[in-house]
Amino acid sequence: MKNKIMKSVGIRIKFYREKRGYSIRALALKMGLKSPSGLSKYENFKASPRIDTLYQIAKVLEISIYDLIEDSEELLDYRTKRITPLELSKENKKIIKNPHLFDDYVD
């Protein structure tokens, strides 16, 4: 469970950082960190940030802390593009956008 949480928070941090146009080093500097290594560990699922660190990240990125712990449709699109390197068929894309359609394929 912890690994799942680390991965999803890491994906969200990277998503919002890139959306803002910040490099990992730029975000670290804006947070007052000497090195981006801690942020890199979060984004690469090697560590999990404390709640106060999440708050600081959210503040610098000008987002709600809930954005770092909840999925949005925009984030789901980002994750699909990042995690699925293969070209998807039109039918598979439709299922990803509308997961309830998957029910037709499950007994």
Task: Kindly list the characteristics that best describe this protein.
107 residues; mainly alpha; 434 Repressor (Amino-terminal Domain); 2 domains; 6 helices; 0% strand; elongated
Written description of the protein model:
The longest helix is centred in the first third of the chain and has 19 residues, at 2-20. The chain has two domains: 2-68, lambda repressor-like DNA-binding domains (434 Repressor (Amino-terminal Domain), Orthogonal Bundle); 73-105, no CATH class. The relative contact order is 0.13. It starts with a helix and ends in a 10-residue tail after the last helix. The model has no long low-confidence stretch (mean pLDDT 76). It has helices spanning 2-20, 24-30, 37-43, 51-61, 73-83, 90-97. It contains six helices and no strands. The protein is elongated. α1 crosses α3. By secondary structure, the protein is mainly alpha-helical.
Helix content: 55-70%
Number of strands: 0
| Poorly predicted ranges | none
Estimate the strand proportion. Answer: under 5%
Q: What's the helix count?
A: 6
Q: Name the CATH superfamily classification of the largest domain.
A: lambda repressor-like DNA-binding domains
Structural class: mainly alpha
Question: What's the main sheet like?
Answer: none
Shape-level CATH architecture of the largest domain: Orthogonal Bundle
Mean pLDDT level: 76
Question: How many structural domains?
Answer: 2
Radius of gyration: 16 Å
- Secondary-structure element string: HHHHHH
Question: What top-tier CATH class of the largest domain fits best?
Answer: Mainly Alpha
> What form results from the Cα inertia axes?
elongated
Q: CATH topology of the largest domain, anyone?
A: 434 Repressor (Amino-terminal Domain)
Span from first to last CA?
27 Å
